[in-house]
C-alpha cells in the first residue's frame, strides 16, 4: 500500500471550484484530480459535498464560525450521527477536525463548553482597557501639570514686563 503525503495549504475558491468541476465531469478519478490539485481525496469529497449543498457560493463564501454556529453544527452532528461529508453538505463547512473538538467540548461541558475562552477574552479586554484608561489619565495629569507651569511662566513674564 502506498501512502502519499499532501502538504496542507489553503486552496483558493477558484482552485476548489475547478477541482469540483473536474470531478463532476468524471474524466479522471478523484484520486488523480486530488493529486493534481495537491489535496487529499477526502478534502475533494468534502468540497463536492459543499457544492451539492450550496453550489459555487458555498465554495466561494464558507460560513463564519461563531459560537452559535459551533453549537448548531455540534448539536446537529450528534443528533444525526453525521459524518464529515454530511456536515459539509448541510452546513457548507469542511473543518471536521474542528467539529470533533467542538463535539468533545460539548459532550463534556454542554453548550457552555466554549464560554470560558470567551470570558477570558472579556477579562483580557477589560485589563487592556484599564491599562489604556490609566495611560490616558497619566497623560491628562501631565498636560494639566504642563498647563500650570506655563500659566506660572506667563504670569511671571507679565509681571516682569509690567515692571519695565
UniProtKB/TrEMBL annotation:
Keywords, comma-separated and alphabetical: Coiled coil
Name by which UniProt lists this protein: Transposase
GO molecular function, one term: sequence-specific DNA binding
Residue stretches in coiled coil: 126-156
